[in-house]
Write a structure and sequence with these properties.
Elements (H helix, E strand, L loop, with lengths): L12 E5 L4 E2 L10 H10 L5 E4 L2 E4 L1 H9 L4 E6 L4 H8 L7 H8 L7 H8 L5 H14 L12 H8 L5 H10 L4 H16 L12 H12 L1 H16 L6 E5 L8 E5 L7 H16 L4
Parallel strand pairs: 2-4, 3-5
Antiparallel strand pairs: 1-5, 3-4, 6-7
Helix pairs in contact: 1-2, 3-5, 4-6, 6-7, 6-8, 7-9, 9-10, 10-11, 11-12
Length: 286
Amino acid sequence: MSCNKLEFGIMKIFEAPINELKPLLGAAMRPSDELLVRSIEDNGVLQPLVVCNNIVCDGHRRLAALKSLGKSTASCIEVAGSPALLFLQLNSHRELTAFELAAAYASVGSQDSSAFFSCARTPESPQLQLALRIIAGKIMGHGDLPEQQLPLNVWRELGHLNEDIGRFALPLLHLPGTVSEKRSIATLLRQAQRKGCLPEVLPGTNATEVLGNLQQIAQPRRSSVLEKFTRALEQNPLPAGVSVKIDQTFSQPGMQLTINLTRRNCERLLQTKTAAEAIFAAVEEL
């Protein structure tokens, strides 16, 4: 099945019993906001739900609002096709979450897999397929999903862990920390797996702690060099108004210095040169 643009002809609107409707997204349903609930309470549903064989393809928030208001029926439009592909087409105006994609992908047959990723406008890969299956099968059923979600590029990176993803996906999702830190953690987990030193669990209670511990496991040489650089900088402090930056991958050896000078403090140039030479001498990797 190709991902052709969905075109509506003359459609019949009908009232369907809410208890017979099955949300495609399930646990990934976005909650209805108070404004939507109030609008439906005052004006009814102005835009009918789109359903396919009683599966809701579009209108999950409207359905949730109707349920919260205790309504027994919902205005619907019946369409034919794959519910997952219809959902992707009808929501192509916004960026879908990994959980929404996982819920939709769970209902897709193997014959429609390529069309699914084409509709989702994301490259099809075994890693992403595995990650979506893990989300749908081992994460969304927990019922205590955190508000913070991870973007697809993080899930794709986790998918490289193969079956080991099952040990880390849910703990990483609940780990206190930023999305950026978790993206780095996913990368370090993959590096640790390549080296055959993947830990059994995330080594720490928050993202910053896990990052530091994983770096020592997956990148021991780089970690030791960074510690050496930190000590050298402490022992040879740069003058005020001077900042230093290094490439922490050490793919481009050297230091980048930024110096703010006025005519009255030109002596900082000499101080900076002395400190920089001492740091280079102490950290041969620079």
